[in-house]
Amino acid sequence: MCGRYILRMQDKYLREWMLHGPPAWVTVSYNIAPSQQVPILREINGVREAAMVRWGLIPHFARGVPGKFSTINARLETFETSASYRRPWKRAQRCIQPASGFYEWHLDAQGRKTPYLITLVDQPLFGFAGLWERSERADGSVVESCAHITMPANPLIADIHNSGSHPQRMPAILRPEDYAAWLHGSREEALAVLQPYVADMMLAHPVSPRVNSVRNNSPELIEPLAPVAA
User: Which residues span the domain enclosing 212?
Assistant: First the structure.
């Protein structure tokens, strides 16, 4: 359910996004994984800003300590009432998590799992709709973190993402014209833009299983891999 993604933030896309300052090490990554620091775009008091936060939301009540269960994805069906996500939702702590593509795994008839890279035809740099939170540790320091919204998949992703504990789901990907509604619109306006991205505007190809290890992070990870013969 989108547990890895890639980011290639060329200068021209940074300007379009009004992002000015994510550390150089994060502007290009071919294997972003949970618990890593990732860039987000958010608005605070009407001012749009970029921030670096932990991927994997730590609720405010957790005192800065990550929980036992994964909080990288917030389900569309439950995030408004979930203990972990309802506070940032009610406080309009919405964000956009930039990405250039994401990985999903496909299980074939022989029981083999193959990772696929999914990119968009119309957006070289796109945004997951997300929520962010602040949680204060016992020593008074603060950790900021995020999760992105997931929803039932479109036909393309449903066919690829056919295994695991939450199959046939996909991240909520925003259209550029929906950024403002998600960042500072009403709750109703924000919910209205959470729609499955059109399958015809997506591309997918199998890639090397080397992406399974977070230690691997190079351009070779996104190169097309010949499908394994049945």
Answer: 4-222
